[in-house]
């Protein structure tokens, strides 16, 4: 009798945990189709959000922005995007609790598609900033939904494995998708289109991509609102706890490192490609060739960030976290310093610099 009860309890526990995909244990109401759709969204996620910075030099060229003003404009656009994301990301999370994850997640890619459609139609920098808001809204929804959906779909015991899988897909998608897009302006130029149309068509290809992803997510993610949503503390109460925790020196150091690492990501994604694009056009390369070259170096940065993530995760478990942080920041600093000593950033030396930058970027984060 006892053995039968034990067997029944074991069977009940297995049923309560749902399907298993490799080492990932799903919740009971989640199908494999839902999981594969999440992987699909993760693959396109970071690439779709990063593309706005990658394509920035083409947009500035369409608007005839003087080269010495492009850095300031890029910084303004990034600042506007970050402010919008901070303001709305909590609202998107709350909205998904009421309307369902698939609506907000698919809406994120839809907004990105709208942003990329409007972006090359801007006739001045003010319109460019306004259109950037659509991209920012899409980024906010995308950023909050990936971890939220992952959290809903997986059993707590294997949550880390699912997050690791989606992170790897993020990186692979960024490398492969941006690596493909880097050739588009040159290809359109070879077809006889001028620089303006080549830039517009490149952005509109991204629009089509985002809309396709939006549809796939909407029709294949789990329908309905989450079965159970834990009660969340008010934002101001959470903020108060965060400030109180900062009295601990190690926590304060973690906060400071977070600010630095976020700035590091912004510098790499916003200014790295722009700097190389401007340098390439100054040296006489066509717009298509300059974009291909600059984006190629950016892809190299991200390609080295993928194994860097595995390396740093192994490393931080072996040493004190503060020491690991110091070493990671040192490597990031070496990467930036190396770039400053390269006489011509368009030579093969830049690949080593890009590799250092990729390792430093992921180590710092």
Please give the share of residues in helix. over 70%
Q: What is the strand arrangement across the widest sheet?
A: 1-2
Low-confidence stretches: 1-15
Calculate Rg over CA atoms.
22 Å
How much beta, percentage-wise? under 5%
Helical stretch count?
A: 14
Order of helices and strands: HEEHHHHHHHHHHHHH
CATH topology tier name of the largest domain: Growth Hormone, Chain: A
How many domains is the backbone divided into? 2
**Helix-and-strand structural type:** mainly alpha
Mean pLDDT across all amino acids: 86
Please identify, by name, the CATH architecture of the largest domain: Up-down Bundle
Give a quick precis of the structure.
This protein is mainly alpha-helical. The protein folds into two domains: 25-226, Up-down Bundle (Growth Hormone, Chain: A), CATH 1.20.1250; 233-365, no CATH class.
Throw out a few tags for this protein.
mainly alpha; Growth Hormone, Chain: A; 2 domains; 80% helix; globular; disordered N terminus
Sequence-ordered SSE layout with sheet pairings:
Layout: H1 2-17, E1 20-21, E2 24-25, H2 32-54, H3 56-62, H4 67-99, H5 101-118, H6 125-153, H7 159-181, H8 184-190, H9 195-220, H10 235-245, H11 249-282, H12 287-316, H13 321-340, H14 349-364
Antiparallel strand pairs: 1-2
Helix pairs in contact: 2-6, 2-7, 2-9, 3-9, 4-5, 4-6, 4-11, 5-6, 5-9, 6-7, 7-12, 8-9, 8-12, 11-12, 12-14, 13-14
């Amino acid at each position: 009798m006892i053995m039968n009860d034990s067997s029944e309890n074991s069977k009940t526990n297995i049923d309560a945990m749902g399907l298993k995909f490799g080492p990932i244990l799903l919740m009971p109401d989640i199908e494999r189709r839902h999981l594969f759709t999440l992987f699909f969204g993760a693959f396109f996620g970071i690439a779709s959000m990063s593309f706005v910075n990658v394509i920035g030099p083409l947009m500035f060229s369409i608007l005839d922005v003087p080269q010495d003003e492009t850095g300031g404009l890029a910084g303004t656009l990034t600042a506007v995007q970050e402010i919008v994301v901070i303001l709305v990301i909590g609202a998107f999370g709350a909205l998904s609790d009421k309307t369902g994850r698939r609506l907000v997640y698919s809406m994120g890619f839809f907004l990105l598609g709208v942003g990329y459609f409007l972006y090359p139609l801007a006739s001045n920098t003010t319109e460019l900033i306004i259109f950037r808001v659509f991209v920012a809204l899409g980024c906010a929804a995308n950023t909050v939904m990936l971890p939220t959906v992952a959290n809903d779909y997986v059993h707590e015991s294997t949550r880390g494995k699912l997050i690791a899988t989606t992170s790897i897909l993020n990186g692979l998608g960024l490398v492969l998708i941006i690596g493909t897009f880097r050739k588009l302006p040159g290809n359109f130029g070879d077809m006889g289109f001028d620089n303006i149309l080549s830039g517009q068509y490149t952005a509109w290809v991204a629009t089509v991509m985002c809309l396709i992803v939006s549809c796939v997510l909407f029709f294949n993610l789990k329908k309905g609102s989450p079965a159970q949503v834990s009660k969340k503390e008010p934002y101001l109460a959470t903020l108060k706890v965060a400030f109180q925790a900062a009295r601990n020196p190690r926590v304060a150091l973690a906060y400071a490192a977070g600010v630095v690492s976020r700035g590091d990501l912004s510098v790499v994604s916003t200014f790295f490609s722009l700097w190389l694009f401007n340098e390439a056009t100054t040296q006489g390369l066509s717009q298509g060739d300059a974009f291909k070259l600059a984006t190629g170096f950016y892809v190299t940065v991200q390609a080295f960030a993928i194994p860097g993530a595995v390396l740093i995760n192994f490393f931080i478990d072996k040493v004190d976290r503060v020491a690991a942080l110091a070493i990671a920041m040192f490597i990031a600093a070496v990467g930036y310093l190396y770039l400053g000593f390269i006489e011509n950033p368009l030579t093969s030396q830049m690949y080593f610099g890009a590799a250092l930058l990729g390792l430093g970027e992921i180590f710092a984060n």
